[in-house]
Amino acid sequence: MRDYLKRTLLGCTAIWAVLPQVAEADEADRRQALFGDLHVHTQYSFDAYIFGVRRTPDDAYRYALGEKLRHAGGYDIQLKGGPLDFYAVTDHAEYIGILPAMNDPASPMSKLPYAADMFSNSADKILAAFSRVTRSMWSSEPAAELNNEGIMKSSWQEIQAAADRYYRPGQFTTFIGFEYTSAPNNANLHRVVLFRGKRVPDLPFSTFNSPNPEKLWAWLDDNRGNGIEGLAIPHNSNVSDGRMFETTNYAGDPITAEYAMTRMRNEPIVEMSQVKGTSDTHPALSPNDEWANFELYETLLGTAITGKTSGSYVRQALQRGLEIEQKTGVNPYKFGLIGSSDTHNAGGPVEEDEYFGKTGLIDGSPETRRVYESANDATLKGPAATPFYEWSAAGLTGVWAERNNREDIYAAFRRKETFATSGPRIKVRLFAGYGYPNDIFGRPDFAALAYKNGVPMGGDLKLSDKGAPTFLAQAIKDPNSAGVERLQIIRGWVENGVLKERVFDIACAAGAPGPKNNRCQTTKASIDASNCLIDKSDGAAELKVNWRDPDFSSKRRAFYYVRVIERPTCRWSTWEANRLGKRPRPGLPLTIQERAWSSPIWIGAS
Question: What's the domain of life for this entry (predicted)?
Answer without folding.
Answer: Bacteria
